[in-house]
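ESCALATION

Customer reports they have been waiting on this structure for their group meeting. Please prioritize. Original submission:
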Amino acid sequence: METSIIKHLSLVILLLICTTVSVNAALIDNGDGTITDTDTSLMWIQNVKYGGFMSHDEALSWADSLFFAGNTDWRLPSLNGLECGGMNPCLGSELGDLYYSSLEYDLGGTDKSGPFTGLTDWDEFWYGDTWDEFSESVYVFRPTGGFQGFYPAGGMEAQAWAVRDVSVVPEPISSILFVTGGTLLAGRRHLRRKKSERGHW
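Update from on-call: job pushed to the front of the queue and completed.
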């Protein structure tokens, strides 16, 4: 009977692990106001409204001087060398990858905020990049319709959302496995103790 209970407990824990890993497996809540995307090795501020609306120059200065969660190497998202405009979702850019890959938005926008707070389809975020053909224009990203276009650098405001590169990706699954192993070990010890007690009768 007790052996059966241990086996059933093991199965339940295994199913919980599989479920935990499959749901938003790429996005890890670090518990300090940041989210790490394990697919891209990028760390984002969890509250997308933290920076607020400002001009592009102000956004660059804000990110460059930002001290958050013990880190100072924050910046604005990058296009990764891609020149996308209009309604092209530009999936290879950092914001494009986050929205359409990690958060699994469809190209029409479905308001999936995942572990982030304050995220909506109608947000507009600055990129750190300028448009090569017109250096006075800078890129913005909005998930609705996959919009990624450009604004005059000095005449518009959009939201500043900071990101930073990370070299070591958190592995919360190791914590789950540690707890799982401890639970199963405690169960087996309990079973052995019960058998030992019966042997004395």
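Sent to customer with the following note: Confidence is low (pLDDT under 50) at residues 16-24.
Escalation resolved.
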